Amino acid sequence: MEEASNKRRTREHLQQKYQSGEKIAVLTCYDATFANVLEKAGIDILLVGDSLGNVIQGKPDTLSVSLEDMLYHTTCVARSTHKAFIIADMPFGTFQVSPQETFTHAARLLAAGAQMVKIEGGRHMAETVDFLTNRGIPVCAHIGLTPQSLHQLGGYKLQGKKTEDAQRLREDAMALQEAGTAMLVMEMMPATLAGEITQRLSIPTIGIGAGSICSGQVLVLHDMLGIYPGKPPRFVRNFLQDTNSIHSAVEAYVQAVRSGMFPANEHAF
Ligand SMILES: Nc1nc(=O)c2c([nH]1)NC[C@@H]1CN(c3ccc(C(=O)N[C@@H](CCC(=O)O)C(=O)O)cc3)CN21
Ligand SMILES: CC(C)C(=O)C(=O)O
Ligand SMILES: [Mg+2]
After folding, report:
1. Which residues constitute the catalytic centre (predicted)?
2. Positions of the chain with pLDDT lower than 50, given as ranges
């Protein structure tokens, strides 16, 4: 019934999927043509990620992606879709200063067509999540490997390996949920830790390099098509190599996420 509907997906649709135990399939998307393919292939959520700094702009990291960049790509994705749920990343520097300033920036992303914004960070972002949530802006939080903290973390590395780091991530997740977070991305964390957090929370979790127990999965589109240059991270699977079109590759991804076939142990930590 839901799949037949031509209306824009809402948080209620996602909540229904989450409660029925159906896995949520997410991919990043930055432009109109791919957005159209992804929507037709049944992707639940299109994430306009700040990974566009790497993938679209050819930068070494996401740190210099601007709000204007995010607004432009969010507009492209929103304009060309009619039912996909769209989340936009808040880029580095636009959500750290104050909840008030963050609201102003997040409101622009919603005006550009996003239904939810994503913010990197743990318990220290709880106040901002609370502020936005109470003023009409749903927030997805992002913990574990938070690429915007590259220089703080010392590289794109697995997070939560030490007992005390794992405990901090558990507490971050609880604090963010408490503050009203609608969804939680967990990146590059041990599968057992991400699974434990998922079972403890009452909001959907979306994993990337966080094992198969999460409520859903996300990958960077160009990674799962095998066209991003360089050695892909361990959590990436190339879905294009066994099919003959991008549409089929994306359908295979949706199917693999829904059936629990992706991620396999080889993609997890
Ligand atoms: N194309 C692309 N894909 C991504 O997943 C991605 C981006 N860009 N840009 C922003 C961040 C950066 N991310 C990254 C980048 C590198 C690794 C990586 O090299 N992982 C290694 C392990 C490194 C280690 O533990 O020391 C791996 O083999 O998984 C992981 C995530 C995830 N995000
Ligand atoms: C990989 C996902 C979670 C992301 O934040 C991005 O694409 O920017
Ligand atoms: Mg991002």
Report:
1. 187 (proton acceptor)
2. 1-2
In degrees and rounded to multiples of 5, residue 205 shows phi and psi of -110, 145
pLDDT single digits (tens) 96-110: 999 999 999 999 999
- Quote the Cα angle for 157-162-163, to 5°: 145
What pLDDT is stored for residue 4 in this prediction?
Answer: 60
In a domain, 192, yes or no: yes
CA separation for the pair 191, 161 (Å, rounded)? 11
pLDDT of residue 1: 43
Does residue 65 sit within a domain? yes
Domain count for the chain, please give it. Answer: 1
**Whole-angstrom Cα distance, residue 238 to residue 225?**
6
Torsion of CA 108, 110, 111, 114, to 10 degrees: 120
Residue 49 DSSP code: -
Domain boundaries, position 66: 11-267
> What confidence score (pLDDT) does residue 3 get?
56
Active site annotation includes 178: no
Residue 6 lies inside a defined structural domain of this protein: no
- Which atom of ligand 1 is nearest to 223's Cα? 1
Residue 120 CA, ligand 3 centroid: distance in Å: 8
Please indicate whether residue 218, judged by its CB atom, sits closer than 6 Å to ligand 1.
no
